[in-house]
C-alpha cells in the first residue's frame, strides 16, 4: 500500500490570500506550490503589498498596499482573480478589474458578484465588450444588507464576505455556498478579527468591523487533490493510505469510491482505500453544490468509469463546457456519448490504450493522467501547464505510489 499526503487546498488558499488585502500582516501556512498561488502572489505584489513566499508559507504585509487596479495580465490567466474585488472594494472603496480568464468551462458569469456589490452600496460600470473589457466599482461607504443568491456560488459568497467585513452594519447572505473552502475563509477572517458566522450553512452573517489585526493561519487540506490520488489507486486496482485528510470534507467523494467497489477505512486524519481489480459502474452520477458530489471530481470519475464494469450516466449540472476531456478519453478507447452538453453516457471498457492527448483544463488534465495510469502502453499528456494550476507535484507523488510517470517537458507535458 502506497502512502501520500494531501497538500494545502488551492480553492481555500486563493481567497484567503486575497483576503489579506483587508488587514496588516498575515502569515499563511500550507499554501500549495502551484502556478495559481504564484499568480496570486504576483497580484498582491502588483497591488503594493510586501510579499514573501518561502516553501509553503506566504507572508503578506498589506499596510503599504497602494493600488486598487487588478493587473490585466494576471486576470486573464486565472478566473479566481476576481476574488480580489470584494477586499479591494472594502479597503479602498473602489476597484478596477478586467474580466477574468482561467480554464474554459463554459458560462461562468460574475453577475452575482457585481449585483451583491451594488446591494452593499457600490456603483458598478461594465464595458460592453466582455472579452478584455473592464469593470469599475466605487462606493463612498459600503453598508450591510440582506443578499439572496439565486445559485449558491462559491466565488460570489466569498466576495460578499470580503466586501462586508469592513462595511457598516450587518450583511446576511442567504442561499450561501456551503463548501468547506467557504468555511476556511470564514475561519481565517475570524482569526483576523472579523465577525462572521454561519459558513457551512445556507445563511452567513457578517457584522462589519473597523479593521483587522495581524494573523497567522494554516490552510485546510485539498479535498480535490486527495480525491484524485484516491482515484489513482482505484483506477489501477491498487491501494493507498492518504494522510492529512478532513473526513467530513471528503464524504461525498469517498461514498462514491465505496459504491464502485473499493474498500475504505478511516483512520485519524487519514483514509485507506483498497480497490478491486476492476471498478463497478455507478449507474447515475450527478454533480451538485456541496454537500453533493463536486464538479471538480467529475472528469477524474469519468476516467475511472470509462474502464469500469457496467455503464454510468454522468450529469454535469454546474458547468456548460466541462467536457473537453471527453474526446481525449475517446482517443484512448473510452466509449462515451455526450447528450445535450450535460449528460454523458459512459460505457465501461475492459482496457484503455495509451495515446497522445491534450489537457484543456485543470481537472480534465488530471483525468487524462489517471487514464494513462490504467492504459496499456504509453500515454503523453500535452499542455500539462493546466494541471500545474492545481497539483503541486502530481508526477513525484504518483511515482512514490508506484506509477511510471515522468514530467519531461518544462513547456507542459506529462508522460506516463
Brief summary:
The protein has 13 helices and 23 strands. With 416 residues, the chain is of the alpha+beta class.
Description:
The protein has helices at 10-19, 35-46, 72-75, 84-92, 111-119, 154-165, 180-191, 223-235, 247-259, 298-306, 326-331, 362-374, 394-400, and strands at residues 2-5, 25-29, 50-54, 57-61, 94-98, 123-126, 134-138, 146-148, 170-174, 195-197, 203-207, 215-218, 239-243, 263-267, 270-274, 283-286, 311-315, 335-339, 343-347, 356-358, 380-382, 406-409, 413-415. Strand 10 and strand 11 form a beta hairpin. It folds into 2 domains: 2-218, Enolpyruvate transferase domain (UDP-n-acetylglucosamine1-carboxyvinyl-transferase, Chain, Alpha-beta prism), CATH 3.65.10.10; 223-415, UDP-n-acetylglucosamine1-carboxyvinyl-transferase, Chain, CATH 3.65.10.10. It is built from 13 helices and 23 strands. It is of the alpha+beta class. The strands form 6 sheets. Strands 1-13-15-14 form a 4-stranded mixed beta sheet, covered by helices on one side. A 4-stranded mixed beta sheet has the order 3-4-2-12, with helices on one face.
Amino acid at each position: 500500500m502506497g502512502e501520500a499526503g494531501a497538500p494545502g487546498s488551492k480553492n481555500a488558499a486563493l481567497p484567503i490570500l486575497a483576503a489579506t488585502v483587508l488587514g496588516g500582516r498575515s502569515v499563511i501556512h500550507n499554501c500549495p506550490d502551484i502556478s495559481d498561488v504564484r499568480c496570486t502572489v504576483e497580484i498582491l505584489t502588483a497591488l503594493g503589498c510586501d510579499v514573501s513566499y518561502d516553501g509553503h508559507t506566504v507572508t503578506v504585509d498589506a499596510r503599504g498596499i497602494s493600488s486598487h487596479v487588478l493587473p490585466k495580465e494576471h486576470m486573464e490567466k486565472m478566473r479566481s482573480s476576481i476574488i480580489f474585488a470584494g477586499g479591494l472594494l472594502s479597503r479602498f472603496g473602489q476597484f478596477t478589474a478586467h474580466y477574468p480568464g482561467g480554464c474554459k468551462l463554459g458560462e461562468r458569469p460574475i453577475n452575482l458578484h457585481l449585483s451583491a456589490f451594488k446591494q452593499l452600496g457600490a456603483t458598478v460600470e461594465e464595458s460592453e465588450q466582455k472579452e478584455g473589457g473592464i469593470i469599475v466599482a466605487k462606493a463612498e461607504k459600503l453598508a450591510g444588507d440582506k443578499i439572496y443568491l439565486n445559485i449558491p456560488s462559491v466565488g460570489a459568497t466569498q466576495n460578499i464576505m470580503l466586501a462586508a467585513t469592513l462595511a457598516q452594519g450587518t450583511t446576511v447572505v442567504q442561499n450561501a455556498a456551503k463548501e468547506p473552502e467557504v468555511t476556511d475563509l470564514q475561519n481565517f477572517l475570524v482569526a483576523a478579527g472579523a465577525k462572521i458566522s454561519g459558513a457551512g450553512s445556507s445563511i452567513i452573517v457578517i457584522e462589519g468591523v473597523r479593521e483587522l489585526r495581524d494573523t497567522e493561519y494554516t490552510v485546510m487540506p485539498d479535498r480535490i487533490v486527495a480525491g484524485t490520488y484516491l482515484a489513482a489507486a482505484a483506477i489501477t486496482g491498487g491501494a493507498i493510505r492518504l494522510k492529512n485528510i478532513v473526513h467530513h470534507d471528503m464524504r461525498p467523494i469517498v461514498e462514491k469510491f465505496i459504491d464502485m467497489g473499493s474498500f475504505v477505512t478511516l483512520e485519524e486524519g487519514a483514509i485507506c482505500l483498497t480497490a478491486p481489480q476492476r471498478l463497478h459502474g455507478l449507474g447515475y452520477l450527478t454533480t451538485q453544490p456541496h454537500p453533493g458530489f463536486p464538479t471538480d471530481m467529475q472528469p477524474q470519475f469519468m476516467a475511472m468509469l470509462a474502464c469500469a464494469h457496467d455503464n454510468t450516466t454522468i450529469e454535469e449540472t454546474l458547468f456548460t463546457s466541462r467536457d473537453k476531456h471527453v474526446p481525449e478519453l475517446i482517443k484512448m478507447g473510452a466509449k462515451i456519448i455526450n447528450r445535450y452538453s450535460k449528460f454523458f453516457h459512459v460505457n465501461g471498457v475492459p482496457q484503455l490504450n495509451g495515446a497522445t492527448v491534450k489537457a484543456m483544463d485543470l481537472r480534465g488534465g488530471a483525468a487524462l493522467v489517471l487514464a494513462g495510469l490504467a492504459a496499456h502502453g504509453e500515454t503523453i499528456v500535452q499542455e500539462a501547464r493546466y494541471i500545474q494550476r492545481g497539483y503541486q507535484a502530481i508526477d513525484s507523488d504518483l511515482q512514490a505510489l508506484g506509477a511510471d510517470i515522468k514530467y519531461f517537458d518544462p513547456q507542459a507535458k506529462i508522460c506516463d
